[in-house]
Automatic annotation (TrEMBL):
Superkingdom of the source species: Bacteria
Name of the protein in question: Transcriptional regulatory protein
Gene source species: Bradyrhizobium cosmicum
Transmembrane segments: none
SMART domains (UniProt xref): HTH_ARAC
Gene3D superfamilies found in the cross-reference section: Homeodomain-like (1.10.10.60), Jelly Rolls (2.60.120.10)
Residues making up the signal peptide according to the UniProt record: none
Length: 266
């Protein structure tokens, strides 16, 4: 696996190292761009101030609309797919700094954070060229505090590692709007429905039914984040829900909000 030096693209609008041990990179990515699997020597907080991206790690697939950011530990393989034009702001954290700040253990795994208005403004303020050393250090500490206040797994779809279960998961993800039957999937991947059900439970900590619902809701979030014209009724129909209330209830169960609230139309 390639270890990518920072920055990983040539077109960098802002790129400097703060005295707080954080390397800041600002760049715009067009829809459809894919950053193939790679890793960094630094830990990073990946945030799209505008647009939507998808971050895939060995453990799963994270959908990242504008009100989310992803923490990626150092040395973790990940790929990024740009689903809608994004304005990315990435913070790369030196490992010695994380060690000095006693942040290493709590940030050893990847996770998604819900970006509050405070965290949003703090990240953007870090890229102000007029910042003093004192202001930069305070902003970095504020960002780190907010990370632990806002962890959120609603947009995470865990990916099983066992080959048969992984193939079944990819079949569902390639067509999340389909009504996938576990018996049919099991035959396609060469196992029994009972075994596949057990594998989903042990590999993802979700039942097959719950995992499929998470995949459908992730697909709904993607549409809501990239298509301003889509209606909740259209989504409910496309995703196979019997009614808008049934879809809204499933959406709320996963995200804590209704589709309308998530899209900011309520």
């Amino acid at each position: 696996m390639t270890v990518v030096e920072t920055p990983i693209l040539r077109e960098v609008r802002g790129n400097h190292r703060s005295t707080a041990g954080v390397h800041l990179v600002a760049r715009d990515y067009p829809r459809g761009l894919r950053l193939d699997p790679h890793m960094h020597r630094e830990a990073q907080l990946v945030y799209a101030a505008k647009g939507t991206m998808q971050v895939t790690t060995p453990g799963g697939r994270w959908l990242v609309p504008p009100d989310r950011a992803v923490w990626v530990p150092a040395g973790l393989e990940h790929a990024i797919d740009v689903l809608a034009d994004i304005e990315m702001r990435t913070l790369y954290f030196d490992l010695p700094w994380l060690t000095r700040e006693q942040r290493n253990d709590s940030l050893a795994k990847e996770f998604v954070v819900r970006v509050s208005p405070l965290l949003h403004q703090a990240i953007l303020a870090l890229f102000d060229a007029r910042n003093t050393q004192e202001r930069t250090e305070l902003l970095v500490r504020l960002v780190m505090l907010e990370l632990h206040q806002a962890e959120d797994s609603a947009t995470f779809v865990p990916l099983p590692r066992e080959p048969r279960c992984r193939r079944a998961a990819m079949i569902v993800l390639d067509d999340p709007t389909g009504l996938h039957d576990i018996d049919t999937l099991a035959r396609e991947v060469g196992t029994s429905a009972r075994t596949l059900s057990r594998l989903f439970s042990t590999q993802t900590q979700l039942s097959f039914k719950s995992w499929c619902q998470r995949a459908r809701i992730a697909a709904a979030i993607q549409r809501l984040s990239t298509d301003a014209g889509v209606s909740v009724k259209q989504l409910a129909t496309q995703l196979g829900y019997a009614s808008v209330p049934a879809f809204s209830a499933a959406f709320r169960q996963v995200t804590g909000r209704t589709p309308t609230e998530f899209a900011g139309k309520g």
